[in-house]
Amino acid sequence: KLTSLALQPVITPELVQGRVHLKCTYSRPSSKLPLRYVVVWSRLSTPGKKEQIQRDTTLQSFSYVEMNGINLKLGDTVFCTVTAFTRDSPEQQSLPEESKSFYAGIKFLPDSLQIAEDGKEHVLTILSTVPIACPGHDDSCKITLQLSTEDLDSQLLGPPNIALSACQVDLLRAPCSESSCAAAALTVTAVTDFAQDGNRISRIRAEPVGRRDLLWRAYTPKDVKVTVRDLPTGNCYSFTDPHIITFDGWRYDNYKIGTFLLCRSVSRAFEVHVRQWDCGGHRSATACNCGVAAR
């Protein structure tokens, strides 16, 4: 039998006549024997189970398979397995060698986020591992993705838990390199809601819009899971005639009449003003809150 020939098959994406193909390339051994190659293309149908989609016998050191949206779709994880044999004695085969898996579709980096209600922006990169074809003269070479968020804790009605910097992004075709053929970036921020509502899980969904070709029309990328960590919220109070309790628990009274600055942040545009009026009459010098303005 032929031993292992170190064929080292690798899958790369390519446009062939304007259509998306995957190419399996492998090293030709320095053996003087004239070799033929059997290339078996397969996809992951269920976790741990592969199904064959194409089988080629060739003299070339490469093989193509088309992503037609029927037997090979976006979202598939694909493998190619190569076996070599001599033309004279086909029963003498090398050991089959399998490529690393290739995921064809939209990827998010990172694929999940853990963020806190601290106002920080987190960059989410969206990339396509396959090149984007130009189906017609009126279409530019791009995929438009419509983005939406969903709070998975549906019992809690309220504002969205996360905010995105864009409602849609365009993936513009670029030369394929390092498993990216088109990329875009946006930022994700946790909504600071001042509520003690525990850690909550949301998801970001991206859906291709406006594409007429079968490959993209029937494809919805996998959602991105976002865990939002609750941060403790500070409280301050002004009540009755007015007694004031500050964020750090210090207590005092303010019986004066007028408009006062109750609170101002030194790190962001946030402040609270309060207006007090004479509510005690002639008998006692007492003031009560009659208006509040918050920015």
Q: Tally the helices: what do you get?
A: 1
The secondary-structure element order is: EEEEEEEEEEEEEEEEHEEEEEEE
Biggest pleated sheet: 5 strands, antiparallel
Rg, Cα atoms, Å: 31 Å
Q: What is the CA–CA distance across the termini?
A: 79 Å
Instruction: Write down the overall mean pLDDT.
Output: 89
CATH superfamily of the largest domain: Immunoglobulins
Number of domain modules:
3
| Annotated CATH architecture of the largest domain | Sandwich
CATH topology of the largest domain: Immunoglobulin-like
CATH class of the largest domain: Mainly Beta
Note the beta-strand portion.
over 45%
Low-confidence stretches: none
Domain VWFD: 234-295
Pfam family, one: Ig_VWDE
GO molecular function: signaling receptor binding
Keywords: Disulfide bond, Signal
Architecture overview:
- By secondary structure, the protein is mostly beta strands.
- It has three domains: 10-104, Immunoglobulins (Immunoglobulin-like); 106-229, Immunoglobulins (Immunoglobulin-like, Sandwich), CATH 2.60.40; 237-294, no CATH class.
- 1% of the residues lie in helices and 49% in strands.
- It has one helix and 23 strands.
- The protein has one helix at residues 214-217; strands spanning 10-16, 19-25, 35-46, 49-58, 62-66, 77-86, 97-98, 102-103, 106-109, 112-116, 122-128, 142-151, 162-164, 168-172, 182-190, 200-209, 224-229, 237-239, 243-245, 251-253, 258-264, 271-278, 287-294.
- Strands 3, 4, 6, 7 and 8 form a five-stranded antiparallel β-sheet that branches. Strands 10-17-16-12-14 form a five-stranded mixed β-sheet, with no helix packed on it. It has a four-stranded antiparallel β-sheet with strand order 9-11-15-13, with no helix packed on it.
- β22 and β23 (287-294) form a beta hairpin.
- It is rod-shaped.
- The N and C termini lie far apart (79 Å).
